From TrEMBL, chain B:
Cell compartment(s), UniProt: Cell membrane
Biological source species: Devosia rhizoryzae
Family classification: Belongs to the binding-protein-dependent transport system permease family. FecCD subfamily.
Keywords: Cell membrane, Membrane, Transmembrane, Transmembrane helix, Transport
Keyword check for Repressor: no
Major localization class: membrane
Name the UniProt record assigns to this protein: Iron chelate uptake ABC transporter family permease subunit
Domain of life: Bacteria
Transmembrane regions: 24-43, 49-68, 80-101, 113-130, 137-155, 161-183, 204-228, 255-283, 295-316, 322-341
Keyword Heme recorded: no
Membrane topology value: Multi-pass membrane protein
Length: 345, 350
């Protein structure tokens, strides 16, 4: 009895501390979003940004830049970032694999393959029609990778999942390359989408993917409790009365919706889903009820930050955000692999 | 008494393995010869067998038939020979990596060494505007640099297979990003030109490529045979091998260098043809069923896979010549699934 009451205050304290942390992150995110509206080939002072948002003047060029170019870009960055962070965290929890990420598990390759097939053989040229293809490809690839990895006695172990994902990605990329070689038109269509970029995406696409992103996010946050169960291992989860098959299926569904929709909107962006949950975990500790919201705020901070960075590092051009995140994320991934603890996987 | 029986048993089983090894090697060589003959014969321009034979020996006999000789000696022969040489080099590179790292997924095409060659090739084609043999040199440098990077990043009190493979996968991702970036900066024609290099193709096979690769292999194969001898004590475990005075670390490093060189020269000659290095080793082992290491067999299988795949790539679709890498990629997929499934069943991947 006494121990219970004694342990209650620290727990409440932790919750208060973590809630405060979330608020701080939200403020950081707002600041980066403001930066994303202001920074670019044509820098716009923050007061002008504010005026454009509150009192829009269609005759002012700067106001038009904000509304037509930078606002869609920023909002897509926010949503895609949040989706990638959540997807990565959910995948890592559901597979108990610290290396899980939409790109490692072949989801990106699947989405790319579907888009390439659509462009090459069905003449799809609108970014907006890529959404459905990317979804189809993401879901299919996830299903195949998971089934291949779970064949055999000990099921889908983390290393087997990562290897199956990487190997099947290699296969899918060789098919993609084959198609691109024979069709210059497809190559021209796809090469800008395939890098992963927030630029040039219209509000149309945003409206198309937003419902999916919302459904995916709600589902992901709803399975947080199930992920906590799964993270203790199948046997413990089962003993706690959890039906692990259903838990895995629901989390997998959330991850595919989120990764599919974000890939459709911004192209395959690697490493955000991989790195962010680790940063979140180092702040919050192991519980997914905190890891998920933290990932959801940290990832768009990283993504928008990378996007802003990409706009200024090589003037007059831009470096696409997918390249900046790869350059930030890959060293992180390598450091993670080098850590001794992982040897136990 | 028992010792005597054991010895005869071992001798008997050794003799048995040796004959199995030899039979398999001859069978593979025969299959390779048949495929080679087929690759001389098949094509849009029908040439009777007598014409092919006459052409092949025309440098000796002096009997020339200009149009037939051109097709046989300048188009089909260099292509087939390059397929055989590069396939053998890929196969050897793959089985060395797989043996040293004790992991079937550790082949150079899976862990990103070939991608390093691609990234370098794309860079020199699009940014520096190089062409021809210079591109191959660039690709070679890219493969070697990537291998070095993976080696140093994965080194931590020694190498463990899983770490090498995963670091390779991470490196691969960075190289993909680099390639995509260069592509967005280039004109579409340049991209197309670099693209055909990315998949790996024999469509532009030349004797210069063949000569460079053959010269490299003439140095590398004796080096490999010498190094393999020092591998024998290592079968007993590192500590025992060291106690027996075997230079374990130098031998391992040497083999790694040879494997990288095989992959790099082959990639420089024909591009990063995927999955040939990956399938050759495991296939050789599966066919040998424990009768030896199978380096020779992996080389033969690599050559055979390359030659057969190129025949399929040339003749499958009527109007288009697919790059060979597309065919090896698709075949590799099937093989890979089989490998993941069966290795899962026996309870281990690495």
């Amino acid at each position: 009895m006494t121990t219970l009451t004694a342990s209650a205050p620290p727990r409440a304290q932790k919750a208060a501390r973590l809630t405060l942390g979330l608020l701080l992150l939200a403020m950081m995110l707002a600041a980066i979003a403001a930066l994303s509206l202001a920074v670019g080939a044509r820098p716009i002072p923050l007061e002008t940004v504010w005026r454009a948002l509150t009192a829009y003047d269609a005759t002012a060029t700067e106001h038009r830049i904000i509304w037509d170019l930078r606002l869609p870009r920023t909002v897509i960055g926010l949503l895609v970032g949040a989706a990638l962070g959540l997807a990565g965290a959910v995948l890592q929890g559901a597979t108990r694999n610290p290396l899980a990420d939409p790109s490692i598990l072949g989801i990106h390759a699947g989405a790319s393959l579907a888009v390439v097939l659509g462009v090459a053989f069905f003449g799809m040229t609108q970014l907006s029609s890529y959404v459905w293809l990317a979804f189809l490809g993401a879901g299919g690839a996830m299903l195949v990778v998971y089934s291949v990895a779970s064949l055999g006695r000990e099921g889908a172990t983390p290393v087997k999942l990562a290897l199956a994902g990487a190997a099947l990605s290699a296969v899918m990329f060789s098919v993609i390359n084959g198609i691109l070689l024979t069709s210059q038109r497809t190559l021209d269509e796809i090469r800008f989408w395939q890098v992963g970029s927030l630029a040039g995406r219209s509000m149309d696409i945003l409206f198309q993917v937003t419902p999916f992103l919302i459904v995916g996010a709600v589902l992901a946050l709803a399975v947080a409790r199930l992920l906590d169960g799964l993270s203790m291992g199948d046997d413990v989860a089962r003993a706690l009365g959890q039906r692990i098959g259903i838990s895995r299926a629901l989390s997998g569904l959330a991850a595919v919706i989120l990764a599919g929709a974000s890939t459709a909107a911004a192209g395959p962006i690697a490493f955000v889903g991989l790195t962010v949950p680790h940063v979140a975990r180092s702040i919050t500790g192991p519980g997914y009820r905190w890891i998920l919201p933290y990932s959801m705020l940290l990832a768009p901070i990283l993504l928008l930050g990378a996007d802003v960075l990409g706009r200024v590092i090589s003037p007059p051009g831009e470096v696409q955000v997918g390249i900046v995140t790869a350059l930030i994320g890959a060293p992180f991934f390598i450091a993670l692999v080098r850590r001794k603890k992982l040897a136990a996987l | 008494m028992t010792a005597a029986i054991d010895t005869t048993g071992i001798i008997a089983s050794r003799a048995h393995s040796a004959s199995r090894r030899n039979r398999l090697a001859w069978a593979l060589a025969a299959a390779l010869a048949v495929t080679f003959a087929l690759s001389m014969y098949l094509g849009d321009f029908p040439i009777p067998v007598s014409g092919i034979i006459q052409s092949l020996f025309s440098p000796l006999t002096g009997l020339a038939n200009r149009s037939v000789d051109f097709i046989v000696l300048q188009v089909r022969l260099p292509r087939a020979l390059l397929a055989i040489a590069s396939g053998a080099a890929f196969g050897l590179s793959g089985i060395i990596f797989q043996t040293l790292l004790r992991n079937p997924l550790a082949s150079p095409d899976i862990i990103g060494i070939s991608r390093g060659a691609s990234a370098a090739a794309v860079f020199v084609i699009i940014i520096l505007g190089w062409t021809g043999l210079a591109v191959s040199l660039g690709a070679f440098a890219g493969a070697v640099l990537t291998a070095l990077a993976i080696y140093f990043l994965a080194w931590r009190n020694g190498l463990t297979p899983y770490r090498v493979v995963l670091i390779g996968i991470g490196t691969d991702a960075v190289l993909i990003a680099a390639i995509s970036y260069i592509f967005t900066r280039a004109r579409i024609n340049e991209v197309q030109q670099a693209m055909s290099w990315l998949v790996g193709s024999l469509n532009a096979a030349r004797y210069t490529d063949l000569l460079v690769l053959a010269a490299a292999m003439a140095v590398l194969i004796p080096a490999l045979i010498a190094l393999l001898r020092s591998l024998d004590p290592m079968e007993l475990g590192d500590d025992t091998a060291r106690a027996l005075g075997a230079p374990v670390e130098p031998a391992r490093l040497g083999l790694m260098l040879v494997a990288v060189a095989f992959a790099a020269f082959a990639t420089a000659a024909v591009g990063p043809v995927g999955f040939v290095a990956f399938v050759a080793g495991p296939l050789a082992r599966a066919l040998l069923k424990g009768a030896g290491r199978g380096f020779l067999h992996a080389a033969l299988i690599g050559a055979l896979v390359m030659l057969v795949s190129d025949l399929i790539a040339q003749h499958m679709l009527p109007a288009t010549q697919l790059p060979v890498g597309v065919v090896t990629g698709a075949c590799g997929a099937i093989f890979l699934l089989w490998l993941l499934i069966t290795s899962g069943r026996s309870g281990r991947v690495n």
